[in-house]
Design goal:
Blueprint (H helix, E strand, L loop, with lengths): L2 E8 L3 H10 L8 E4 L7 E6 L3 E11 L3 E11 L14 E8 L4 E11 L5 H21 L10
Antiparallel strand pairs: 1-7, 2-3, 3-4, 4-5, 5-6, 6-7
Length: 149
């Protein structure tokens, strides 16, 4: 069972990446954010309208190197899913590695694998939001989810 993994390279410092993952989630993931993600033990909830949310516990923070979130509650209320809480107890790990003039970010979502019904939908979501994270740290402008008004 291979967990979802994606590696991206950005033209930004490890400090900028770490800051984006701990302080600026609304700029690249979703504007519907409650809580805090900048200290170990913090919890935050992200939402995508009323039908999808995830509550995450900040499990580990190593400045400019690593961010680990544990999903403590989740709802993915989309018609194609029978089990709408598959993200609960999965772990999202961001490994950050400074290179010469760029930074490599490896995202590993432990528990998101091909045996999980939401794999395709969720993997596509991660591709979209890691592209947004890349844009945000490279240019200052991400493409987070914004609810329609």
């Amino acid at each position: 069972m291979e967990n979802f993994k994606k590696t991206i390279t950005v033209q930004a410092t490890a400090a900028a990446v770490y800051y984006a993952l701990t302080q600026e989630i609304t700029q690249w993931w979703t504007s519907m954010f409650e809580g805090s993600a900048n200290q170990q033990g913090d919890t935050f909830t992200i939402r995508f309208r009323d039908t999808i949310f995830k509550t995450l516990l900040v499990q580990e923070l190593i400045s400019q190197q690593k961010v680990v979130w544990l999903v403590t509650n989740a709802l993915l209320d989309i018609p194609e899913l029978e089990n709408k809480t598959e993200w609960i107890n999965t772990k999202i790990i961001w490994d950050i590695a400074a290179k010469a003039k760029e930074t490599e970010i490896q995202l590993t979502h432990i528990g998101l694998n091909h045996q999980v019904a939401c794999y395709d939908v969720c993997a596509n979501g991660w591709h979209n939001f890691t592209d947004s994270l890349t844009a945000f740290v490279n240019t200052g402008k991400g493409k987070p989810f914004l609810p329609s008004i």
